[in-house]
Each structure stands twice: as structure tokens, then as C-alpha cells.
Design brief:
By secondary structure, the protein is α/β, with parallel strands linked by helices. The protein has a single domain, classed as 3-Layer(aba) Sandwich (Rossmann fold). It is about 30% helix and about 25% strand. It is built from 7 helices and 11 strands. The protein has a 5-stranded parallel beta sheet with strand order 2-1-3-4-11, with helices on both faces. β7 and β8 form a beta hairpin. The radius of gyration is 17 Å and the shape is globular. About 30% of the residues are buried.
């Protein structure tokens, strides 16, 4: 598969959720049956599960994801709705990405979370800390800017860094379907789009 080819993805996501910004051909099958999923799996390159942080996971989603993962298809979990508006108070609710990662590890399977969400003084997401590269991806200006992390931040993320290092993660863990990758996805702030595309490109390059 060359770098420009669109990927065929099985997407488990809420009906209103779109991934138009990603270069994949979406094959959404939230109601797969034992009679149809073998055919779908045979022509699919990856599995994408979208988790809304304010809603969590249903038992049907858990069962379907675990069933599809039995074939060891390369898989990405996108965590969205980390910022939601409360229609009653007109205020924004904020959800912790790390809590959702723990939910994933507990209810699905232990995966790799290569990014941490960074927040401003008001608690709103403004960027990511890249644990694989040890650097900051700053989105505060609306576009991404790669920056060196200062010593204070490195100390704050030390436990997360050590945990990831212990996993000895390599790209083939993802492209072979051995490990699931979990990524924060906040498209209204551009956060997570390029990072997801990075792993999709990795998958394209690994395939013939």
C-alpha cells in the first residue's frame, strides 16, 4: 500500500460523529453480525473506536470491539468530547483523557497512549505532550508547533514516561495489530488530527 492510498476502516462511533479530516475510507459497521463481519474484516485495514468521554462505553460497543480484536486488526481508539457544553448553564464541562485511558485498559485491553493532553490556566486543552518524542505539540495558536519540553513539565510527566518506556513500544506493535493505540481527538481545536494521521501513515507504509 503506498503512502497516498486511502485506508478502509471499520468505525464504531456515534452516528453524528465524523472523521472527514482523516484520509481513510470509512466503513462504519456498528451493527455487525456473525454472518457479515468476516467479509468486512477481510477487506478492512484497521478498526477505529470512538469513545465520547462524557458518555463512556456501552456493553454492546465493548463486546463488538473485543470480538473484532480477536483477529488482531490494527486498531486506534479516539477519545473525543473532552470538552462539552452544558445547555443548562452554558458552561463547558471538561473530561480527563487519562481517566478514559484507564477505562480502556480496564474494560477493553491495555493499550498504548503516546500523548498526554496539556491544558491552559482555565483548564482547556491547548496541546499535547508526545511521550514517544519527549516534546510538546502546541496548538494554542490554532496550528501545531513542536516545542522542547521544559524541566518542570518533564518532571510532571515522569511517571507516564516511565510507564510507556517499560512497554518497549515499536511501530510494528501497532501496524501488526499487537497493540491498540489510544489518542485524544479534539478536532474543534485541531488536536489529535495530525497525530492520528501519523499512525495511519505508519500503517500505510507497513503494508505492501
Amino acid at each position: 500500500m503506498n503512502g497516498g492510498k486511502r485506508l478502509e476502516a471499520i468505525v464504531i462511533a456515534p452516528p453524528r460523529f465524523g472523521l472527514d479530516s482523516l484520509a481513510i475510507a470509512l466503513t462504519s459497521h456498528p451493527t455487525l453480525t456473525p454472518f457479515s463481519d468476516d467479509l468486512v474484516m477481510a477487506k478492512s485495514d484497521l478498526l477505529i473506536l470512538v469513545i465520547e468521554a462524557d458518555r463512556g462505553l456501552s456493553q454492546d460497543e465493548i463486546s463488538l470491539f473485543n470480538h473484532l480484536r480477536e483477529s488482531q486488526i490494527p486498531s486506534i481508539i479516539l477519545v473525543t468530547s473532552l470538552i462539552t457544553a452544558d445547555p443548562k448553564t452554558n458552561e463547558q464541562d471538561r473530561w480527563d483523557f487519562d481517566d478514559i485511558v484507564m477505562l480502556v485498559n480496564r474494560t477493553l485491553e491495555k493499550g498504548i497512549a503516546p500523548y498526554l493532553v496539556l491544558h491552559d490556566d482555565a483548564g482547556l486543552p491547548i496541546g499535547l505532550y508526545d511521550l514517544l518524542e519527549g516534546s510538546v505539540i502546541n496548538y494554542s495558536a490554532g496550528s501545531s508547533a513542536r516545542e522542547e519540553a521544559d524541566l518542570e513539565l518533564r518532571e510532571l510527566v515522569k511517571d507516564f514516561q516511565e510507564e510507556l518506556d517499560e512497554e518497549n513500544f515499536v511501530p510494528s506493535d501497532f501496524t501488526s495489530g499487537l497493540r491498540v493505540v489510544t489518542i485524544p481527538y479534539i478536532p474543534e481545536r485541531r488536536i489529535g488530527i495530525a497525530e492520528t494521521e501519523h499512525f495511519l501513515t505508519m500503517l500505510r507504509q507497513a503494508q505492501p
